[in-house]
Specification:
The chain has 263 residues and is α/β, with parallel strands linked by helices. The protein is 43% helix and 12% strand. Helix 5 (113-125) packs across helix 11 (246-253). The structure holds iron/sulfur cluster.
């Protein structure tokens, strides 16, 4: 049995479709964090029709949304965003304990050097997950994935059309100043909620050279949401990707080695 992780992002959606064409028994899973755009329900349902099979939705039994995690004071520490661990990674671990056996797990990392780097780090850190990266193997980029969805007649998730680089949760602590200024404009309620949580717990999403900066003191002109590329959440904390493995990324990019051959 193959587990394919659907995240409501364009790349994982295409990775799941490829997985279904490659393997016999593919089970599709989506982890609902409770903090995503409501359009995700439409996108998920469109993809289920495209796949011809349902996507299992699973969620944390402790946290209903990302704000629940932030309220515990876990915002953006030296070990990355705790909300990746709580409503996502722990849910994956639980599923793995329940299933006990699988032949591979399909992930939607694409052919961007940073994504290849993340895939390599993931393989190194979670060899037991038996990860598979069909997009990297087939040299598929995020724009390619968007094109494939367009061709299939599936409208991409609204967050992309609104100008976000990915379909992460709304109000992601991994975002930079430009991202948060965009959230303030597009989703003022979320911005105000997180700003209040920051004050309540005395911790911040953002930091600059002078130290931490609370959302309610963020000048509206700071940051550029287009320049700031936040990685797709993909159930993995950003700290896990900090080590750069340039040489291997370059070789995968050039097609000299397969992502499957990277040790
Ligand atoms: S997308 Fe952002 S807010 Fe959502 S779980 Fe991942 S790190 Fe947390």
């Amino acid at each position: 049995m193959i587990i394919a992780w659907f995240s409501c992002g364009v790349t994982s959606a295409v990775a799941c479709k490829i997985a279904l064409s490659l393997y016999k028994d593919v089970q599709l899973y989506y982890i609902e964090t409770g903090s995503c755009h409501p359009d995700n329900a439409r996108f998920l349902s469109d993809c289920e029709k495209w796949y011809g099979q349902p996507i299992h939705t699973i969620r944390s039994d402790k946290y209903t949304c990302v704000a629940d995690v932030l309220r515990k004071g876990w915002i953006n520490g030296p070990h990355g965003a705790a909300c990746t661990l709580k409503p996502k990674k722990e849910v994956r671990y639980k599923l793995e304990r329940e299933l006990q056996h699988w032949d591979g797990q399909v992930w939607g990392f694409d052919l961007d050097p940073k994504e290849i780097n993340r895939a390599i780090r993931f393989k190194q850190q979670y060899p037991d997950a038996k990860p598979l990266f069909p997009l990297i193997e087939r040299q598929i980029t995020k724009p390619d994935a968007m094109g494939m969805l367009w061709k299939a007649g599936i409208k991409q998730p609204v967050m992309y059309s609104m100008g976000y680089n990915n379909n992460n949760c709304i109000g992601c602590p991994k975002g930079g100043m430009g991202y948060w200024n965009k959230i303030r404009k597009d989703f003022p309620d979320v911005f105000n909620e997180v700003a209040q949580i920051e004050r309540d717990v005395g911790a911040t999403c953002l930091k600059d050279k002078d130290g931490r900066i609370f959302l309610d003191e963020l000048p509206p002109w700071r940051g550029d949401p287009v320049e700031e590329i936040i990685p797709d959440c993909s159930l993995i904390c950003q700290i896990e990707f900090q080590e750069i493995i340039d040489r291997q990324v370059e070789r995968v990019l050039k097609g000299e080695i397969s992502i499957n051959d990277v040790a």
